[in-house]
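If you are new to this repository, start here. Below is one unmodified record pulled from the training split, so you can see the exact layout before writing a loader.
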Amino acid sequence: MKPKAKSEQQHRLRRIEGRHNALLKELRQAFAHGERTAEGDCAIEGVRIVEEAIRSGLRFRALFFRESAQSHAERILPQIGAHVETLLVADCLFDGAVPSETPQGIAALVRLKEFSLDDMLQRLQAGPIVVVAGLQDPGNLGTILRSAEAFGTAGAVLGEGTVSHFNAKVIRASAGSVFRLPIVAARTAAAMASVSAKFLAHSVRTMATSSHKGTPLDQARLTGPAAILVGSEGAGVPRSLMAQADEIVAIPHSPHVESLNAGVAASIVLYEAARQRR
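And here is the target side for that same chain:
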């Protein structure tokens, strides 16, 4: 970068030296709770994830650069509008705000796009809706969301007891898919009942995944308006949802393996749905 351009980028950075800075406090709390701030922003970190957020057209509220990783600013700031707050944070303050043990030195507050269930129902030609219920492992949820985008789906509904998609580990495991995939949270029994009612009204077939019983995956019909229900490794799909399913689908596997990882199982089903559509 030319010296003049470098100087301009450095000039944009506002130095923070106190932990009580309002934006830094929001970043720290968003990471700690794995939810949006009062302003509606979520916290992200890492060069690749920040660049995925830029590529996905998200609205940035603030960018934070670790003082010893200031070189990232030369790469990222030319991609960011002048209206975005850009802050240079002392190493100890940055490390205290982000959850990573070895932070890359860049974090941000961004606004994720919002979608409704009706948006997904209008996209059913793209593939099934994935309904995730009771899944607490952020890595597994991130994997499911990444596969949902990779293999083509209408979106994902996150049911009661499922980890938030604003969780930093979910965002990292999704490799940026969480920024683009339509996602709706239905975290109460009433919200899930509303989802089920809309599925019924739009003739959406619901298929629950199971590790022990059901129609073998290669014999199941996964085309047409459909919703695929995925549960946790331990409990599987909740009984209330299993009872409403039009069909139970099983992935054949060795009897020596009790069950598949939820992220792996969902990915296999989504791949098969994509293969059948082709």
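Two things worth knowing about this chain: The mean pLDDT is 91. The two ends are 46 Å apart (CA to CA).
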